[in-house]
Amino acid sequence: MSFLKRLKDLINSFGFTKTERRIILILILIIVLGFSLKYVKFLFSSDEAFNYSKTIEEFYKGADKINNIKYGLTIKDTNLEEINLIEKETQIQDSSEQSQLEKRLKDVEDSLKNVKTKKNKKEQALEGKVININIATKEELMALPGIGETMAERIIAYRKDHNGFKKIEDIMKVKGIGKKKFEKLKKYITVN
């Protein structure tokens, strides 16, 4: 039995109509043609590897710019030529530039101190005071560290729903007040 006869018998065993067989044949031809074209394109394509040198060069230029920014240096050249960081550091020996850098550093340190004092302003205002969370107004509750308008409203709603707080630890039952926040609050609150 010849190969074509076997193939014909196999196709006939599926019970396809003449039109269905033609469609299947066309689909098979399209697939074979597609793979053939892809293979030919692969054979005639150039095998040049990607040149990473330009990408690496740009990476190092960016790193130099970041170092210049990190150390407070600026590129003052009008044509924006890259300046080697080591060369720039040797130029800083001028005392006026050093004093400018020291002033910038002092300004940054001062701003960090201001951030810390802002955090503690509520605590400084409450020094020596205790607020009764069962009768405090919204504004009084907002004076507590870590308590904003929304949290103050939640505390008031909780005490209305539960007939007040029995002990100061009950404030942790208010949504949004966990152990950390309670540790900050406990020296400023009471239920008496």
Explain what you see.
This protein is mainly α and 192 residues long. The chain has three domains: 3-44; 53-119, no CATH class; 126-190, Orthogonal Bundle (DNA polymerase, domain 1), CATH 1.10.150.320. It has helices spanning 3-13, 18-44, 53-70, 85-91, 95-125, 138-142, 149-161, 179-185; strands at 131-132, 189-190. Strands 1-2 form a two-stranded parallel sheet. It is elongated. The N and C termini lie far apart (105 Å). The model is unreliable at 74-82 (pLDDT under 50).
Give a brief outline of the structure.
Helix content is 62%, strand content 2%. The protein has 192 residues and is mainly α.
Give the helix/strand layout.
Elements: H1 3-13, H2 18-44, H3 53-70, H4 85-91, H5 95-125, E1 131-132, H6 138-142, H7 149-161, H8 179-185, E2 189-190
Give the tally of structural domains. Answer: 3
Count of helical stretches:
8
Strand order of the largest sheet: 1-2
Major β-sheet profile: 2 strands, parallel
Find the count of extended strands (DSSP E, 2+ residues): 2
| Low-confidence runs | 74-82
Roughly how many Å is the radius of gyration?
38 Å
Give the averaged pLDDT, no decimals: 77
Name the beta content range. under 5%
Cα distance spanning the termini: 105 Å
What are the secondary-structure elements, in order, as H or E? HHHHHEHHHE
Helix content: 55-70%
